[in-house]
Design brief:
mainly beta; Porin; eight-stranded antiparallel barrel; 8% helix
């Protein structure tokens, strides 16, 4: 817990200091889906057969010199899953708070590719339907981003991007499997927009 609190404080301090060097500020939002492969259980039998996740996020960011951007982002993942050994239905959620850094690759056109990395933490949630129980866990999170922006005006950009989002393994205690640990990894495909001011 101390490690996650320290990471959050570092992210907040960096983001608080960034506006001094910012050339412009922006708001962004994305919506799309995540592909989660089957995830193993530790401490219980079987695995989870994950359905695609609904993914949405929003951010406040700052453009710096040399085509760099930094931002603070809040995101949400939600998907259902079946436990292979019992057929129980589960729901998994992830509320994430991330500090992201990007580099935009300049071109001689409105199309601007980008690469990015994010660090932060998430609140992982799990629930099952048969016994109506739920649990949550605080986890560390990392994401890698790549995508393409299209400038439709000097103040607005449409985006399409891929993100690999992963966390440390969350622990849950639910009726059925009992106490278990599982993986959380998602390949996200997102459509969005960025508005500068």
């Amino acid at each position: 817990m101390k490690r996650f609190t320290g990471l959050l404080l570092i992210n907040l301090l960096v983001l608080a200091a960034v506006p001094v060097w910012a050339q412009e500020t922006y708001l962004s939002g994305n919506i799309g889906f995540g592909i989660r492969s089957d995830s193993k259980l530790t401490g219980a039998s079987g695995k989870f057969d994950n359905d695609p996740a609904f993914v949405v996020n929003g951010a406040v960011g700052f453009k710096l010199q040399h085509n760099f951007r930094v931002e603070g982002e809040i995101g949400y993942h939600l998907n259902s899953a079946d436990r292979t050994t019992s057929g129980q239905d589960f729901n998994f959620s992830m509320l994430s708070l991330m500090g992201n850094a990007y580099v935009d690759i300049p071109t001689q056109s409105p199309l601007v590719p980008y690469l990015g990395i994010g660090l932060g933490f998430g609140i992982a949630g799990a629930s099952e339907d048969v016994f109506d129980t739920s649990d949550s866990d605080l986890v560390g999170a990392v994401q890698l981003m790549a995508g393409l922006g299209y400038d439709i005006s000097p103040k607005a950009t449409l985006t399409f991007g891929y993100r690999y989002f992963t966390t440390t393994d969350p622990d849950f205690a639910l009726a059925g499997p009992g106490f278990f640990e599982t993986e959380y990894k998602s390949h996200d495909f997102l459509f969005g927009a960025r508005f500068r001011f």
